Amino acid sequence: MASNITAFKTSSSPTCALKPQEPLLPFVTDNVLAIILPTIIYFIASGFFHILDVYNLFSNHRIHPSEDELKRNHVTRGECLKGVLRYHMMQISIGLLLNIGSTPPMTGDEVCRTHQLALTIQNIRSNILPLILNTIGINAKQLSLATQGTSTTLANILDHPLSSPTHPSPSSLFLANLTSNILIPLAQFTIALLVVDTWIYFTHRLCHVNKTLYRLVHAQHHRLYVSYAYGAVYAHWLETLFLDILSFVMAGELSGMSARQNMWFAGMATVKTISDHCGYVLPWDPTHWVNGNGARFHDLHHQGWGLKYNFSTYTVFWDNLLGTAYKNTDEAERKYRRVQEMTRKKALGAKVE
Questions:
Q1: Using alpha carbons only, what angle is made at residue 169 by residues 162 and 161, rounded to the nearest 5 degrees?
Q2: C-alpha angle with apex 322: 317 to 324, nearest 5 degrees?
Q3: pTM as predicted
């Protein structure tokens, strides 16, 4: 283990030693755990909703009557489960192949990186910020004196002498810690979300615009008119590869997230996908007050009259921007009731025959 440790020193006092990070679980690396965790979460979360289906719990929150599933879906639950298992085998296999030759996450340099960032922040505050203000006719020192009585924080930012090029002040260290521990991870998460949401929106929409792609690939997913939780990723293998797996590989690479950050991101994305297809509008679903992209939003897309709307998976940004969000809720309710009434009439007719 000692041979895997690299000691180094920054331009000031901290001394750091890089070493492999201890895994969260002793029997599996973090890289591998990040690959298999979404599958574990998928079957736990979908299993919860399956119990609701089997025991008819929270039936007043169902989008469709339970009997509609057998009458409207074009795939059995058994066939759907086979497709879902194939999806997860592909996801894990590709993840493990991409993981071959990867090194374990390293740790031990956090203090040095934060220290160096604090020096950079201190230099910006002491030299670059006043210079920028001076170019637009603002004297940083005078503005600092003017704001001393009303905003001590602003005054210190504007007039912060660089007392030492190697020892950052406490306020610079605070800003560096804030940046390292909150702002950078938040930016990485935002980039990953932007990549996945954008890629899935446009590839998903392409699968509906291009009739050949829809017929040969995406139509498989739309055999579920009345969706249920564990059928969330029931899809053609090409869609699994190019729409889902590729989007998350790109998100991880472009955002620079660590294996543990990927666990959180992929885990939350998995729960969101399950929630979108669960068939229940539950009062505790946070999407109701975050952006409205929840089970009802996506279920509408699975209806024959909603195929050209609501392509987004995580946000509603692209749907709203490009005019593909279905916003007439009253009309949607009428269409839902009409379809359910037709289904009941067909069932009654079948019984009479």
A1: 20
A2: 90
A3: 0.86
